[in-house]
Amino acid sequence: MGGLSSVGPVRTEASVRLDVGGAQSTSPADFAASTAPVRLSAKDRRRNCRLGVINGAIFRVGDVFIDTEMVLTWFLAQLGASNLLIGLVSPIRFGGSFLLSFSMGEPRSAAS
After folding, report:
1. CA–CA gap between residue 15 and residue 13 (Å, rounded)
2. Which of 35, 41, 95, 112 has the fewest other C-beta atoms within 10 Å?
């Protein structure tokens, strides 16, 4: 057993030591102070807001382009399908989601 070295005391949640200003502390107040959010300047808040709005807009545009109905209608239009079939893409897709429910249900008689 001479090859094993000591790894130190076992740490639990209550005994976690934080290095706050060079001194080790286990105080919850010191932990809260070390993890407090950084206050942003007005310039940084405006920048974060603009970036958040731009991110949301780009996400929505991307979401529209990968939407199933958008892709299927475009694909059918490229294949030369009729306008009626292209118009039925959404109802067929929506109605198709109920097919499994219909197949799993038991038939009921009109008398019940």
Report:
1. 6
2. 112
Nearest-angstrom CA–CA distance, 106 and 69: 31
Whether 75 maps to a domain, the answer reads yes
Mean pLDDT of all residues belonging to the chain: 76
Tokens of 25: 């502390």
Q: Determine, yes or no, domain membership for 35.
A: no
Q: Where are the beta strands (DSSP E) in 4-110?
A: 18-20, 23-25
pTM of the complete model beyond 0.70: no
The answer to whether position 18 is within a domain reads: no
Q: How many domains does the chain have?
A: 1
For residue 86, tell me if it sits in a domain. yes
Higher pLDDT among residues 36 and 80, named by residue: 80
Those residues whose C-beta lies under 8 Å from the C-beta of residue 20, and which sit 6 or more positions away, are 30, 33, 34
User: Domain range spanning residue 66?
Assistant: 42-104
Question: 81 by DSSP, 3-state: which?
Answer: coil
Mean pLDDT of 49-76: 91
